[in-house]
Amino acid sequence: MSRYYLTTAIDYVNSRPHLGTAYEKVTADVIARYKRLAGFDVHFLMGNDEHSQNVYKKAVEEGLHNNPVGYCDRMEAEFTAVWKALHCSYDDFIRTTQPRHKAAVQKLAQAAHDAGDIYEGVYEGWYCVSCEAFKPDKDLVDGKCPVHPTLTPEWIREKNYFFRLSKYRDRLMKHFEAQPSFLEPEIRRNEILRLLDAGLEDISMSRAGQSWGVPLPFDPDSVVYVWFDALINYATAVGYGTDEARFATWWPADLHIIGKDITRFHTVVWPAMLWSAGIEVPRQVFGHGWLHYGGQRMSKSLGTSVDPMEAAAPKFAPDAGPDPIRLYLTKEITYGSDGDFTWERFEERYNVDLANNLGNLVSRVVSMADKYRGGRIAAAGDGGRLAGVAGEALARYRRSMDAFALHDGVAAAYGLVDATNGFIADSAPWKLAKDPANAARLDAVLFEAAEAVRVAAVLLQPVMPSSCAEILRRIGAPVTGDALRLDHAAWQSAGERATIPGPPMWPRSVPPGDLQLAGPAPEVKIQPAKEKSVDDKSPAAPVAEAAPAPPAGERIGIEDFLKVELKVAKVREASAMPKSKKLIRLLVDVGEPEPRTILAGIAEGYQPEQLVGKTIVIVANLKPRPMMGTESNGMVLAASGPGQPPILVAADDSLPPGTRVG
Ligand code: MSP
Q1: Rounded to an integer, what is the distance from CA 510 to the centroid of its chain?
Q2: Which atom of ligand 1 is closest in space to residue 259's alpha carbon?
Q3: Which pTM was predicted?
Q4: pLDDT tens sequence across 477-495
Q5: Which atom of ligand 1 is nearest to the CA of 233?
Q6: C-beta 491 within 6 A of ligand 1
Q7: DSSP letter string over 540-565?
Q8: Which string of DSSP letters, residue by residue, matches 373-417?
Q9: Of these four, 76, 412, 543, 578, which has the most CB atoms within 10 Å of its CB?
Q10: Can you tell me which atom of ligand 1 is nearest the CA of 11?
Q11: Nearest residue CA, atom 16 of ligand 1?
Q12: Where are the beta strands (DSSP E) in 2-40?
C-alpha cells in the first residue's frame, strides 16, 4: 500500500485556537481522510509549537515561570480537545518540548554545522515577537510589522549563529523550475519566485540570552531560533534523530499544509536546512488562504475571533456535531484563497445544504422504501440515468480532490445529490406506487435513488465522516470507518438494502432570536373549515377560515408567524376542477414521499397547463380541508390586486421542494 505522510503547521500555544487555525486543521483532515479513502496508508501529523517567546511570556503571566512546560501541558489539553471536537483524525501530535524533538533539532543543527553552513555573527535589527521573525526595514510598514500592526517590533543586537541560506538560492530556483507542483497554489509559487529573484540573505538560526528553547549542540549558551526548531518537527515525528529506520520509511513528507503567511519558511528555509543536512526535501507544500470573520482579520484582541467549539455545536443546531462547520469550511471557500465566515451565512448554508437538500433526500428515500417496500430495497434495473451522473461525479471528485480543489470535490458530490432530488421528482414514485403494474419500475426507481445516495455519502465521507456513516446505515449500506474505500463509490447494481428510518438528520434551524421570543404562544383559533364555505363566490386565493384577522395595521408577534409553515413546492400536475370557475386542482411536490393535492382559486389567472413545472410557495401546515368533494392539503400563496386575476408567488427554481420559506 502506498504511504502518504501529511502535516499541518504546528500552533503557538499562547492562546486557544480560533476558527482560522481550525480551518487549516479541518481542511488537512479532509485531505487525510480522502487519502485513506483512496487506499493510502496515511500518517497525519498535527502538533504544537512551544518554544516561542510569547508562549514563555504567557507561562510567566500565569505564574509558571518555573514550569513553562506545565503551561504547555495545559494548552495541549485545550488544543486537542478542540481538534477532537472537530473530528480531526491525526495519527500523532507532536510538541516541540518533547525529548524526541530535542534530539532531532540537535542532530540537524549539528549536521548543518558540520556541513559548514553555520557561522557566528551579530544580528542587529528588528524582531517581531508575534511572527517570531527577524524583520528587515523593507518588510515594515510605518515601522510596524504588517501582520501585527498593533505591536511595535523589538530592536535587538545579539550574538547569533547564522545559517548560509544564500548558498542555496540557485538550487532552490532549479528545484522550483523542475518541480512546479512543489508549492501550490500558483499564486504562492509566484510570490516565492519573486523573492528568490531578489536574492537571499543568510538568516539567524539561534538566539542568545534565552533559556526557553533547544540548546545548540555546539554552543549550549544559545538556543535554536524558534523557526529553525519548529520546522524540524516534521522530521522528528517520523523518527529523525531517534529511529532512523522509521524515518527512512516515512520521509520525505508528501504534503505540508500551511497558511499563506508562512510559505517562505516552508519552501525556502526548510528545503535549504534539509539539503544542508543531506536530507531529501518534502514533495509538496500547499499554502491555504486565511479565514476572515465578517470580512475582518480573525483576531482575539479585535473581538473578531470565532471559537471553534461553538462552531462545532452551533446554537441553531446544537446536536449536529462538527459536520456542518466542516462542510462550510470545505464547500464555501475555494481552497487556496481567502474565505469568510459569519454565523448568519453558516446557518443559511446549514439550512440549504443539509436540512433542505441532503437531509431531505435521505429522509425521502428511506421513508419511501419504508412505505412502499417495508424497508427493503431490492436490486433492480441497470442503473439508469443516475448511474451515469454518479460516474461523472466520481471522476470529477477524484480529479478535484487530487488537485486539492476541495471545494470542487464537494460540489461534485452535491451535483449528484441535486440530480437525485430531480430524479425522484421526475420519476414520481408515489404515482408508480398506485398501480401494481408499475411494481418493477418502482423497485428500479427506489434502488437507483438509494444507490445514488450511497455513492454521494461515500464521496462526502472525508468532509462529514459521522453523518455519512449515519446515511450509509440508514440506507442499508453500512460500510464505514477504515473499511470504506473510494472503490465503493463505483455504482453497484446488486444487493438488497434494508433501510432504517430515523428522525431528520439536520432539522431546520429556528431563525436566530426566535428562541428568546418563544414563550407561551398566544392561542390562535383555526376553525374547522366547512365545505360549503368554498365555492365559486369565494375570493380568488382560498383562505382558511380562521380567528378574525387582527385589525389592519396591528402587528403580530413572530411567534404567530412561526406557526405558519411556508414551503417551496413544485407543481407536478394541474387540472381544472369540474363545475368551478375559480378552482384548479394541483398536485404539488413538497419534498414528501407523496405529492399533495391542493385546490387553488387561481383559475382566473392561469390555464392548468401553464402551471406544471412552476416552483411556488405553499402554506404546508394547514389542516386538510374538504372542498367540493376533494380534500385540499395546504394553500398556495398568490397575490391579486382589486379586480385583477391572481398571480402565484414564485420561488427560485433552484430551490428543492420542501425548502422552508420564512
Ligand atoms: N508556529 C508557527 C508555525 C510553525 S510550522 C513549522 C505558526 N503558528 S500560528 O499559531 O501562528 O499559526 C498556525 C497556522 O494557522 C499557520 O499555518 C497560520 O497560517 C494558520 N492561521 C492562523 N490564522 C489563520 C486564519 N485566520 N485563517 C487560516 N489560517 C490561519 O505560524
Answers
A1: 21
A2: 19
A3: 0.82
A4: 988 888 899 999 999 988 8
A5: 6
A6: no
A7: SS-----SPPPPTTPPPPHHHHTTS-
A8: HTTEE---SS-HHHHHHHHHHHHHHHHHHHTT-HHHHHHHHHHHH
A9: 412
A10: 10
A11: 259
A12: 3-8, 11-12
